[in-house]
Amino acid sequence: MADDTIFAKIIRREIPTDILYQDELVTAFRDIHPQAPTHILIVTNRTIATTNDVQPEDELALGRLFTVAAKLAKEMGIDESGYRLIVNCNRDAGQEVPHLHMHLLGGRRLGPLVARPG
Ligand code: 5GP
Q1: Residues 24-40: pLDDT tens digits?
Q2: Which of 32, 40, 92, 100 best tests ligand 1's pocket when mutated (most atoms within 8 Å of CB)?
Q3: Which residue owns the Cα nearest ligand 1 atom 4?
């Protein structure tokens, strides 16, 4: 079933996960393998495989990713120190889960934007 990603199961609360935020468009929860003191995933409730698959009708949900990221960054106390928002698409970006999501990372100096080749 196309909707059966691990994130879809979290959204439907079939997998117990501490949900930090949920509304009719997006859901946020902590990454299971955090790469920074704050590492939250904000996912679209609709299963969109990658950014290649976004539709005009998704624009409200895609905008909501940012407003929820800003709200959570403030709640986590990293809005002033700073944070990084990342959306990976497909193999070269290392996308693991085919369900559109934004990473909210912060709480330490995050270093260069991308890893050097090699
Ligand atoms: P991607 O590489 O697709 O942009 O990021 C997928 C992220 O999902 C990874 O950082 C990974 O640690 C996280 N992840 C994968 N499976 C689970 C899970 O079952 N629960 C949570 N909370 N995070 C997950």
Answers
A1: 999 999 999 999 999 99
A2: 32
A3: 95
Q: Is 101 a catalytic residue?
A: yes
Rounded to the nearest angstrom, the gap between the alpha carbon of residue 69 and the centroid of all alpha carbons in its chain is 9
- Residues 6 or more apart whose Cβ sits within 8 Å of residue 52: 89, 90
d(CA 76, CA 84): 13
* Residue 50 Cβ < 6 Å to ligand 1: no
pLDDT in tens, 85-97: 999 999 999 999 9
In the chain, what are the domains? 2-106 (3.30.428.10)
Answer whether residue 84 shows pLDDT above 90.
Answer: yes
Q: Which residues contact 111 (CB under 8 A, 6 or more apart)?
A: none
Query: What is the pTM assigned to this prediction?
Result: 0.97
* Separation between Cα atoms, residue 11 and residue 27, nearest integer Å: 7
Atom of ligand 1 minimally distant from the CA of 17:
22
